[in-house]
Each structure stands twice: as structure tokens, then as C-alpha cells.
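ERR on first pass: missing label on line 2. Operator R.T. fixed the label and resubmitted. Corrected input:
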Amino acid sequence: MHMIDDGIVAVVKRECPTCELVLPVLQSIDRVAPLEVYVQDDPRYGDGLRRVVDDGELEVSYHLDIETVPTVIRLEGGREVSRVVGWDRDAWRALTGIPDLGDGLPATRPGCGSKTRDPGMPVKLKVRYGETGLRSREIEIPGEIDPVEACFDRGWTDGLPVVPPTRERVLEMLSGTRRDPQELVGAIPPNLAPCTVEKVAINAVMAGCKPEYFPVVLAAVETALRPEFGLHGVLATTNAVAPVIMVNGPIARAIGMNAKGNVFGQGNRANATIGRALQLVVRNVGGGRPGEIDRAVFGSPAKYTFCFAEDEEDPRWESYAVSLGYSPQQSTVTVFAGDGNTPIIDHTSRTPEELCRSFAGCLRAVYHPGHVVQLQAFLAVGGEHQQVFYQAGWSKQRVKDELLKLLMVPIEEVVPGRAGLGGLEEWKVPVVDGYVPKFATGSLNIIRAGGSAGKYSAIISSIGGNQTIRPVTGEIRL
Amino acid sequence: MTQPQILLDPTAETAAVAQPRLRRPASLAGLTIGLLDIAKPRADEFLDRLEELLKERGLLTKRFRKRAFMERAATELKQRIRSECDVVIEALAD
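pass 2 clean. output:
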């Protein structure tokens, strides 16, 4: 690219009506001053002008950072000294020093968008001409190889196809955050590999995320790295747990997450891809792969992705995040270990007491009816079950208190061994009047989710809950 | 032919380094044997018995314990074992 050092440069598009309007003006300038006209779409624009340059590749437009056409720029000694965007008679006269320029034309007329601002174009141009700031190793995939297959071949996928992480897509993803791509997010287990915002972005692209999901993905990764969550244990264990992500607050609605029908199921892009992005970070950056460090006996489909928004619609119960002290205006992620979900079906209970007995019966069976330590659960109360509690005026805390009362296990029913009797001593669980709590070491948490029709609730069970593998909540920074 | 495509590496880009194993000592005589309990239940039973057997043979032992089995051993613990022992036996049990 070589522009004139002294004179006027105009950037135009033939399809832009304002650019057509100013053609006679440019012809007037051309007669008295050095003028170079760069045309983004069709170099037939400006027949008769002395210097018309085809900028179909947008190189000049990119370097001049053109947002609107027409743009006129005055250069002196190779440096820009003034610029006018769109048609503005007085401003053009001032820039060119031609007093009667554009006589007979309207005083002003806005221009059109520069082709450099077409959707997807800014990142393409940045890759083509600019400094991307990306630091990850570039891998060239020959033209005859399908990049999706290349990702499989390199072991980068969870078994499903991934979106190939091109530089353009990664730059788009990074536009979803103000954070520096080279900022360290943390060390990802099991290899404790340093992970930058850029590496998270690459994996978020592969998972299929949109840039507006990216702050949620970053918060999920950072929250999962907090020591009390115990990500190493979650990914390595013989148990079935996956890292589950629950999103609270306005961002869940802003990015269209599902908190309602089929909440734990397929079909919502944000739910599906945010959970998957975290798992791809664990796999690709951390090196946590099944058959290697991941020793799960069964695993779970939740290990592909398990992410949802809590249903915060009805104000009668506070959300999980609000119960932790966050305000309803704050957006948070809560990361907890979960095996998938076990439905509770109760079509008959009409009182909170009856419903709590149903819940307690199902919760009692988690892992084993006599298993009382090293387990925890999230109980997701579905729409119609919520109504039973609302109508009776029961708070969420009251439901929880009632459940904990019902979930006292007679000591003779506690299984021997680590998860039961052995664990009581180890975890210093007091036996009161021959009973121990089912959730002796871990927490029972109540959330709301799911469709409004059907009398269902669900249990997301998990190991842990004492020293590590605890639910952890973090704020989403936009 | 389609143009080649550039993809960005999603991994940590840490090439695996093959660590050579330490040479096994010809004899344990005079060496300090670290016994590391990873805090899985009943690991201590296994190590107690092992320690008994080692002591019967007149060998020196030292006991160590991780805080929780689901956590990686703390760096300080690893450094202590490294500085105080010649060999280590790590016990996993359940």
C-alpha cells in the first residue's frame, strides 16, 4: 500500500448513494488538488478521476480505520491532519480549502457503512493485515483435510465434532470480554497447565459458544479452579460426577439460557456450549482425559456438558445466589459436582408435608440408603411442585429444614465401611439418639428449574461436600 | 484445491517430557523409607503393617500424610519427603 504523502484521500463505495452524490465534488477537487480515491466495491466508480484505486481487498480501508463511506482525509507529509466522515459541505470545504465546493448539494448527508465493518469482516482483516495479538501455536491444516476431522485426529474433541478454532473465530470470541487475551486464568488440573484467556477462547469456539457467552465461560473456569471445588478430584474420580454450572442473574436471560422446560436437556445453545467449553478446557489445556487421569467407572452424559440457568421468575423464593448474599442484579456462576439427574415423580401430593416426605424418600436413596457421608445434592424443585409450597406459604428454608428433619438415618441402617459407619468417625459425625443425618458432611441445596407443567422435581447428586468438592459461586465479570 | 486453514492449538502446548525413573537401590539398608498415606480410608492400616515388616528388618521409616486424597500433595509435603527420605511408598486403599 502506498498512498500519496500530500493531498486528499477519499474512501468510497459505488453502491453508497452519498458516495454517488459526492462524485462531482471529488471531480472538482481532482481538478485543483492531488486526490486519490479508494473504492471498496467497484473501481468503475469515478470515471474521469485521475487516481482511482481498487481497494476490494480493503487493505487501505483497514489501515485507515474507515468506519463510514465516504470518508475524506487530508494528508501532509504522510500524516493525517484532518478527516471528514459522510458528506458535510462546510467540513469538506474546510478540509480541501475550496470555498464553493459542493454548491447546490444538500448541506449534509450521512454516509454508508464501510465494507470493513461488514459482519465478520473486522476479524478477517485483522488476521489478514493486522497484529492479532494471539500467541497460541498456529497449526496449518492442508486444504484437502477437513478441519473438523483434523480436530478429531489431534484428540481435541469430547467425541462430538467441534467448531475448528480459526484465528478469526477466536478473535470474535475474545470480543466478548474486555480482558487481555494473555491474562492468566489459572492452572488447569490435572497437569496444572497455565491457561490464558486466549486458551479459554479457543476452547469456547470449539464448544460452539457465541462471544456473548464468553464472560460466563471465563467465570465458570475460574470458579471451577477455586481449591474448594476440587476440580482435580472431580475430573479424576472413579465416580460419575461432572462439573455442573448453574447461572444466576440477568446474564442468563440476556444470553437466552434455558431455566424452564427440558432445562437439563438438549436444545439450548448457551446451556449446551458453556458447559462443554469448561470440559474442553479441562481436556485440552489440563490434560484430563477419560482412560488416563479420568478414571470414572461409568461417567455420565453430563460430562459432555451440564449447564443451566436457575429459574428466578417467581419472587416468592429467593434464588440460590441471593441466598448466598448476592443481589438479584448480580450475575453469578455456581459450579458444583453432579452425577446427572434423578427425577422425582409425585403426581399426588398436595400439601408441603406430603411432598417433603416424597422428596426425603428419594433423597435418602442417593448412592445407597445407608450412605451418609461424602455426599451432597442439589434438589431442583419443578414448576408444579413449587406451587404446592407457594400456596402453603412455605419458604425455601422451611422446605430445607423439613427435609433435613426427615432425612435422619437410624444408625443400624447406616452401611458399614467408608461411606457409612467408618466415615462417621473419620468425619466426626455425632450420633444423636441413634440417628445420623443423611447429609452428614455435605450440603443439601434447593433450587428451582424446569417446565411449568408436570409434577416433577429432580435430584442432582454428588460426592464430596466436606473438605473439597464443594459448590462454589463466583461473580461473572462483564 | 482448497486453501490450507490455520487453526489455533487449544492445548497447553506443553510437550510431554519423559522423566527417567530413578535407579532402584540395590538394598534398603541404611536408607530412610517414606510411607505416604494419601488419606484414603484404611491406607493407614496398610502402612502400619508395612512399617512393622520394614522395622522387623531393621529399616528406617518415616510417616507422611496428605491432607485429603482428592487433592494433589502439597509442594511442601513433597519437598519434605524428598529431603528426608531416600525412597517412598505411597499407599492407596479404600
